[in-house]
Amino acid sequence: MIQRRIFWVYFVVITSLTGCALPTPSEQARSTEVNQSVVNSHQQKLEQLQQWSLSGRMAIIQKEKEERDSFYINWRYLPHQQIIRFSHPLKGQLAKLTIDDSGALLVDSDDQERWAPSADALLYRLLGASVPFEQLHHWVLGRKTTTLESLSYHKDGTLAQANVQNQEQNWQLNWFYNQESSQVPLLPGQVHIENPALLIKVQVNQWQLTH
Fold first, then answer.
1. Which of 40, 64, 84, 104 is spaced 20 to 30 Å from 122 by Cα?
2. Phi, psi of 57 (to 5 degrees)
3. Contact 142, 187 (CB under 8 A)
4. What confidence score (pLDDT) does residue 129 get?
């Protein structure tokens, strides 16, 4: 409980946002036996995305306590820097997380700073959970990494589900897409990362891409 309170204090996620739950999209068919050339073609297109930004929402759900918090995010990715802003439509910016080659820095609306050598280390210090955040910028695009195991795909070659081990904790990832989208390459509308105790949802409302 103390760790969780510390996390919310410095992450500035307030209880007035709790009612903004993110609905889970409908289950989409997946398979481990998808034409590998289709998968490779899609992944090659994703590899070309070196700069991008997204706007959307993030939800953090404590499963055992059935406690939910959600907030708006604006995430900008460059090859050597990521900036993620957490906000509320009425209260403005709540916090800013900057990740670069020197480490991860979280600054809240009162200009209080928390730093760690990596985003994973920072979230562990604040949340007390080994969240696999370092590679999330790949996964939010639907991009494969070497750490992913037990992969399954949608019929169009996009990632559907995978597992990853992080600090001896097993996490499952699920990707959801708008199958009617004409976007090329097709990018996720939601990404879920969960273990038995915690579920993190990232919902993308808008992508901005630079090849």
1. 64
2. -140, 160
3. yes
4. 77
171 bridge partner residues? 164
DSSP 3-state of 130: coil
Beta strands in the chain (DSSP E): 51-62, 67-78, 81-88, 92-100, 103-108, 113-116, 149-153, 159-166, 169-176, 190-194, 198-210
CATH 2.50.20.10 given to domain 2-205: yes
Distance of alpha carbon 203 from alpha carbon 211, whole angstroms: 22
What's the pLDDT score for residue 82?
96
Task: Report d(CA 194, CA 172) in Å as an integer.
Answer: 5
User: What is the rounded distance in angstroms from the CA atom of residue 68 to the CA atom of residue 27?
Assistant: 21
pLDDT, position 172: 97
CA count, 13 A, side-chain hemisphere, 89: 6
> Is 17 in a helix, a strand, or coil?
helix
Residues counted in the chain: 211
Q: For residues 120 and 132, is the Cβ–Cβ distance under 8 A?
A: yes
CA–CA distance, 71 with 86 (Å, rounded to integer): 7
Please state, in angstroms and as integers, the Cα–Cα distance from residue 37 to each residue in 42, 88, 144, 177, 188, following that order. 9, 42, 14, 20, 20
Residues of the chain with pLDDT under 50: 1-19
* Bridge partners, 74 (sequence order): 55, 85
Q: What is the DSSP letter of 102?
A: T
